[in-house]
Amino acid sequence: MDWHELAPMDIEKRSFEIITRELGGRTLDPERAPIIKRVIHTTADLDYADTLYFSEDAVKAGKAALLAGASIVTDTRMAEAGINKTALSKLGGAVYCFMSDQDVAGEAKARGITRAAVSMEKAAVLTGPLIIAAGNAPTALLRLNELIWEGRIKPDLIVGVPVGFVNVVESKEIIKASGIPCILSLGRKGGSNVAAAIINALLYTLHDREQ
Amino acid sequence: MDWHELAPMDIEKRSFEIITRELGGRTLDPERAPIIKRVIHTTADLDYADTLYFSEDAVKAGKAALLAGASIVTDTRMAEAGINKTALSKLGGAVYCFMSDQDVAGEAKARGITRAAVSMEKAAVLTGPLIIAAGNAPTALLRLNELIWEGRIKPDLIVGVPVGFVNVVESKEIIKASGIPCILSLGRKGGSNVAAAIINALLYTLHDREQ
């Protein structure tokens, strides 16, 4: 089909139809399906149908936090850029990335830890409903877990989808055991794009967008 | 190993060592290896060792354009956010994303095509060395190809790594046949993060960063 004949709004619709077809006979939890499909839409990687982990209460907790105007803290400028700010601000929410902040950089250098770890400490002083969306740095999740155990932070939802080869698998297992509602990409895969896709899927469900 | 004991700068180094080990006996072209490895580092997806396609002259053309202070035009804010602007600006280059521009949105709506397609027309009026980095929209590549054939644009390099299910595979095959130096992720996979990783790998090689 000539690409000129396919209207922009039909491209996404058709993509989701293909994804649904390729997932074939699988029965996805209806509450989780829009999230799983949007991540596959973002990555063209059907593995996520198997590797996305949801704690029992994750979707409900995430939606409630967004409806209450949650702050979302991400560990990359890319995830920040990918989250739909129009949809988020309509609910009174906002997204923050502290990675480039001077105080975070200075503190990280002084202590010899990553800026992502320090940025979780900065997230801990925010008030109101909170979602952590980590798409890059396992150290963000590892420090976050310590802060949870110290009683210094209690996010409403953790989207924990860092990607890579060092401490990544472990960081997700630790969050899985934290008792905090979470959506995780078990294994090595994930990324800023996956983090943004999960947040956007939650937002679009709340805005009654079709997918 | 306790994560506190691993210095931030060692995490990336160790990640690349793991990638090199997992690629095992494969012989990667030395000029292409840093790009392939950085994409795998960004995605934790070893498939890219097989699916990244380089035209014969792509790496040399990309480096020459960056050294000459190239403009990079991307099709997403995420790719724009992911490209290392410090490394780019040291060479005199800059990155542009026209997707949110009012004139692009208006033109796209009026003509019933995607903003990504219109943004390629906007790229065509830039002067000087030019790299197109498309990580999302196949329609960017399809319109780009038309502009190339019409003689309205001649990028020094096309990084063509859109992701998805509709027109994605075809868009890359069309660019492959365009005669323009290109780096492509053949198949459905790709993404804004992959586009940024390829540009950054080229930049880091020029800046003599280890990986």
TrEMBL record, chains A, B:
It comes from the Bacteria. Residues 10-204 form the Cobalamin biosynthesis precorrin-8X methylmutase CobH/CbiC domain. PANTHER family: COBALT-PRECORRIN-8 METHYLMUTASE. Pathway: Cofactor biosynthesis; adenosylcobalamin biosynthesis. Belongs to the CobH/CbiC family. GO terms for biological process: cobalamin biosynthetic process. GO terms for molecular function: precorrin-8X methylmutase activity. It holds the Pfam family CbiC. InterPro entries: Cbl_synth_CobH/CbiC, CobH/CbiC_sf. Coiled coil: none annotated. It comes from Sporobacter termitidis DSM 10068. This is Precorrin-8X methylmutase. Keywords: Cobalamin biosynthesis, Isomerase.
